[in-house]
Amino acid sequence: MVALFPAPLTPLGGLDAALHARGFAVLDAASVAALASVAGDAFDALLPSWDELRTDEYLKDGGRYRKRRHACCIVEAGTVQPVPHRAHYQPLEYNALHGGMQRWFAPVEAATLAQPAWPALILALAQVCTRQRPDTARWHVEAHQFRIDTSDGVGRPTPEGAHRDGVDFVAVLLVARHAIKGGETRVFAAQGPEGQRFTLDQPWSLLLMDDARVIHESTPIQPLDARGGHRDTWVLTFRAAGFLGD
What we know:
It is a single chain. The protein is α+β, with helices and mostly antiparallel strands and 246 residues long. Helix content is 15%, strand content 32%. It has a single domain, classed as Sandwich (Jelly Rolls). The chain has helices at residues 15-22, 29-36, 110-113, 117-132, and strands at 24-27, 54-55, 66-76, 79-82, 138-149, 169-178, 180-182, 185-189, 195-198, 205-210, 214-218, 221-223, 230-239. The model has no long low-confidence stretch (mean pLDDT 95).
């Protein structure tokens, strides 16, 4: 039997303090909606887009278990400004498995970007980041839609293992878990032994991390039955000093 540890939820009013004190915070779905100033069901309009993701052709383990889309924008002066589609790049220092190369993923669909909840959350999280880094006026944001499935028997949300992303802040939203076990989230201090493990299982709950202070991973998933299952997430990264690879 696999033990399930509940997520260590932070009240919305304590978000800034928790992020400052320990380098990460977890919000439930209601708090995420309140943070973005949208209705509680506003994010559900995004759900169909996770059925339209494209296979990740860059997996070096030969797997076919990951589908994704990718988009970039700049947040400045209270606005979300899309930028032309670009490659996703990480140095080998941060991703020893898939770093050091330009990866061109399918772009996030225009209809998805046009849903009000998409820019609302990005802008709200950028404001949280700015409160942690008051001298930052511009955030370079990368958005990733992921589906990890069990088509290979096992799906690996983080095949590179425990890692940092090489940015300032990382937000991971749990979109859906369907007919799977596993997928435990683990967050560790980057410069110490402290860590915490828990399972994000509430749709639209959020893990927000200070990427310089913590490393993170998600454990593999397995199907609950022969029909298979999947785990969907929306990952947003925020970096002040330009996009990685520039």
